[in-house]
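Lab notebook: predicted structure, single chain.

Context: the supervisor wants predicted structures on file for every construct in the current expression panel, including those that have not yet been purified. This is the next one on the list. No modifications to the sequence; it matches the entry in the shared construct table.
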Amino acid sequence: MRLSSRAASLLAVAAALPLALTACSSGSSDSSDTGSSASTKSAKAKDPNAGLVTGTQLKKALAPASEFPAGFTLQADNSADSGSQFLDPEAKSTAKTDCTRLLGTSWIQVTGYKGGVSFAQNDYAVKDQTQDLAQEIDEFQGTTAAAVMKEFASVATACAAFTDSDTHATVKTTGKSTAGLGDDAYTLTLTSGAWQNGTTLIAARSGSAVVTVMSTAGSDNGAASAKKLTTTVLSRLK
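Prediction complete. Output recorded below exactly as produced.
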């Protein structure tokens, strides 16, 4: 799950801050105000995170509890965000597609991209955990969000049939581009003879942000509830 890996990244960032502050406070100061000012302006101009929003801001864009069906409650263990600090971007993994990531929250990692430089996520479930609705927003630098979206079609092909590690049953995956959601969107549907209901996964891009939703709610493989949740989050991002 993304929660543990991203939480580790946040701890690393927090641990590095005191060192960074010490480094800034030690040594002699530059006597050239003009040179320092020019350097600062240059650094700001090249900031790859300029215009991006933080995890703290993304958390506010997640759909609130009032948008979820009756009986669904927040799962605290699966709630996380990157706070006010931007994370270091990570290159796309070249490892073989891990299709089992489609079975959990933070399934965006199945694309090979670990996640954005900022993120927020949580999920809601019914008491017996038989129905689940998860949401996540990742903010990416440059054109990376568009690159992430292009990977979902490849995922649908690579994961057309794979084994559920929990039930040891075969899971079938179908995918399609989806119109009317954000700048572009893609839907993956997972089904298995061993499941009572399938799973719908929707990824939708809004500028530099990618919204990923997972739903097993309802009797339609989670299709309607996944679309509704995606639409809600996209509207809150504007």
